[in-house]
TrEMBL record:
Residues 21-198 form the Calcineurin-like phosphoesterase domain. InterPro entries: Ap4A_hydrolase (IPR050126), Calcineurin-like_PHP (IPR004843), Metallo-depent_PP-like (IPR029052). This is Serine/threonine protein phosphatase. Gene3D superfamilies: 3.60.21.10. PANTHER family: METALLOPHOSPHOESTERASE (PTHR42850), ZINC-DEPENDENT ENDOPOLYPHOSPHATASE (PTHR42850:SF4). It comes from Psychrilyobacter piezotolerans. Signal peptide: none annotated.
């Protein structure tokens, strides 16, 4: 929760016109099968950009496979940027500083299990994770894991705010920026991407609860979803009975 490492402070600035399509996926949480299914639908080319907006690890079964696949796709020449999520923060703090309690309480056990003692690969992934940027500034859109502090300009945001903020951002309709914030972190328990207001696109489809991961393309606003059978189970338990 401390998150004061200077290497994760950076915001990557990119131009939308440099890419054919800009897809954003968030909060995959170890559901590597859903990630592969989405990639299969998207059919990413070297002219596209894919932003994976934090929280690829924890809760779901295949965190190791997530980072391994992402590194291979990048090595293969695809433009993929993974922003730093609060679960990447929990993971780094647990492994480097021994803060295991917070991590295990939030699904870190599944991440440890997925590595199955492959410690060399874990330290390679950790190097990648620690160098993830905090956000991607696309001009019109600002892609960030948790959101921004509405009382501050983009330049004044801290890494902690961009990784962990929740209610103070979501419940605040007025921002000190004209940009449209594309964010995850706070799950939509109906398993859908939400256009919350003129400046907020909420894309965490709650993979762990709903079984859904969504993706949005920022030029066309095309939205696609992949889900497991868990969505139906979840909806039956939480919505249909009432
Ligand atoms: Mn998350």
């Amino acid at each position: 929760m401390r998150l004061n490492r200077s290497e994760v402070m950076n915001i990557v600035k990119l131009k939308m016109e440099d890419y054919d399509r800009i897809w954003v996926i968030s909060d995959i949480h170890g559901y590597h099968d859903l990630f592969l299914k989405l990639l299969n639908k998207i059919k990413l080319t070297a002219k596209d950009l894919l932003i994976i907006n934090g929280d690829s690890c924890d809760r779901g079964p295949s965190s190791f496979e997530m980072y391994e696949t992402i590194e291979k796709l990048i090595d293969g020449g695809l433009n993929i940027i993974h922003t730093f999520g609060n679960h990447e923060d929990l993971m780094v703090n647990a492994i480097e500083d021994g803060e295991l309690f917070a991590w295990y309480r939030n699904g870190g056990r599944q991440t440890v299990d997925s590595y199955k003692k492959k410690y060399e690969i874990l330290s390679k992934h950790l190097k990648y994770i620690k160098n993830m940027p905090m956000a991607v500034d696309l001009g019109k859109y600002f892609v960030v894991h948790a959101g921004i502090n509405p009382q501050k300009t983009i330049e004044e945001q801290t890494s902690y705010e961009m990784t962990w903020i929740r209610g103070d951002f979501i419940d605040h309709p007025l921002l000190k920026t004209d940009k449209i914030i594309v964010y995850g972190h706070t799950p939509n328990l109906d398993g859908k991407i939400h256009f919350v207001d003129d400046q907020k696109i909420s894309i965490d489809c709650g993979s762990y609860n709903t079984g859904v991961v969504g993706a949005i393309e920022l030029k066309s606003m095309e939205i696609i979803y992949e889900n497991t059978h868990r969505l139906n189970i979840y909806l039956n338990q939480h919505f249909k009975k009432r």
